[in-house]
Amino acid sequence: LLIGHDGMRRRPADRAVPPVGASRACSSCVRTADVKDACAQCERLVCQSCSRLCSCCNAVTCSLCSTVDYGDVGEQVLCNGCSIFQV
Question: Are 45 and 31 a contacting pair, CB within 8 Å?
Fold first, then answer.
């Protein structure tokens, strides 16, 4: 196990995809899609339409592990790790 930027335990990247025969549904919309990424924060699978790209570190995150900052600059998606540093 690895420790991420947010201090949470993480699995190595090769373990992010579930084994063959396991459920491969998107954790947000529960649909099965061809292209899936694993959330960089919680490692749940998210489809391309549900994934969000962090504006700060470019990590792929799900809707539970990201927040939208509606600041003066405009709308920014931030992962939980980067949202701590944004004031």
Answer: no
d(CA 21, CA 24): 8
pLDDT, tens digit, 9 for 90 and up, residues 1-44: 566 667 777 665 544 555 555 556 787 787 765 566 888 888 88
Nearest to 25 by CA among 74, 77, 62: 62
Alpha helices in 1-87 (DSSP H): 80-83
27 with 33: CB under 8 angstroms? no
The CA-based dihedral angle spanning residues 25, 31, 36, 37, taken in that order and rounded to the nearest 10 degrees: -70
